[in-house]
Design a protein that fits this description.
Layout (H helix, E strand, L loop, with lengths): L9 E5 L5 H15 L3 E6 L9 H16 L4 E5 L6 H11 L4 E6 L6 H5 L1 H9 L4 E6 L15 E8 L2 E5 L6 E9 L8 E7 L2 E7 L3 E2 L8
Parallel strand pairs: 1-2, 1-4, 2-3, 4-5
Antiparallel strand pairs: 6-7, 6-8, 7-11, 8-9, 9-10
């Protein structure tokens, strides 16, 4: 728990997708610089028990990163029917937030940010808060249309590298999400996993990752 500047408080708002880690780390840097509390918020319209495996993976990874950065709390608003801006405003007031970090992206429900609607609503409802709009590009490697929906998978180490498998065993080396390329009969695609609180992507070719250190750019 941070005990530094109580005049400042950072809230990072993330939504299910590949850019959450970057936003959390940006907010963490600001909080560290100001030596002040850090909160992370994600809002979702679905109940927790309806989340798919990919979404749960993102939340788990974000929680670990938030813990690593010393966040006061990772806040998840499940089954939320109110507008996102209203929820952010409510949390900001409850936590005495002075600075909010948002991602400027055309992805999913957060596309409103690009149009400025969420920003304008926040500026109107919580004029005392500074907004940091972080430009985040849409992830190239798992763009919609190029890869299928991610599924939980594992990498098992062997003589030819790491073999992709979908059944968990005690021999598994890594657990993550596999994105299969559209239009291929074999398991070719991207395997994404968390390593030392960092999201790593490696390429899978015919069921194998030849070198775990050969990261996707």
């Amino acid at each position: 728990m941070k005990t530094g500047s109580m005049d400042e408080c950072i809230l990072v708002c993330v939504y299910y997708g590949p850019n959450g880690e970057r936003l959390i780390r940006r907010g963490g840097k600001i909080a560290k610089m100001l030596n002040c509390p850090l909160y992370v918020l994600t809002v979702d319209r679905q109940p927790e028990d309806e989340w798919d495996i990919e979404k749960s993976h993102y939340i788990s990874a974000w929680k670990k990163i938030a813990d690593e950065l010393g966040a006061e709390e990772f806040i998840v608003k499940y089954n939320e029917k109110r507008p996102v801006a209203k929820v952010i405003t409510e949390v900001a007031k409850q936590k005495n937030v002075t600075q909010i970090v948002l991602g400027q992206t055309a992805q999913s429900r957060w596309e409103e940010i690009t149009k400025g609607s969420i920003v304008n609503l926040l500026l109107h409802d919580i004029s005392f808060v500074d907004l940091h709009i972080v430009s985040v590009s849409r992830e190239l490697n798992v763009q919609e249309g190029f890869y299928e929906t991610g599924v939980r998978a594992y990498l098992k180490e062997g003589p030819e590298g790491f073999r992709l498998c979908f059944n968990h065993t005690h021999l598994d080396k890594y657990e993550g999400i596999f994105y299969k390329e559209v239009g291929t009969d074999f398991n070719n695609g991207i395997f994404k996993f968390l390593l030392d609180n960092e999201t790593i992507e490696v390429r899978v070719v015919d069921d194998y990752v030849k070198d775990i250190n050969d990261r996707v750019n």
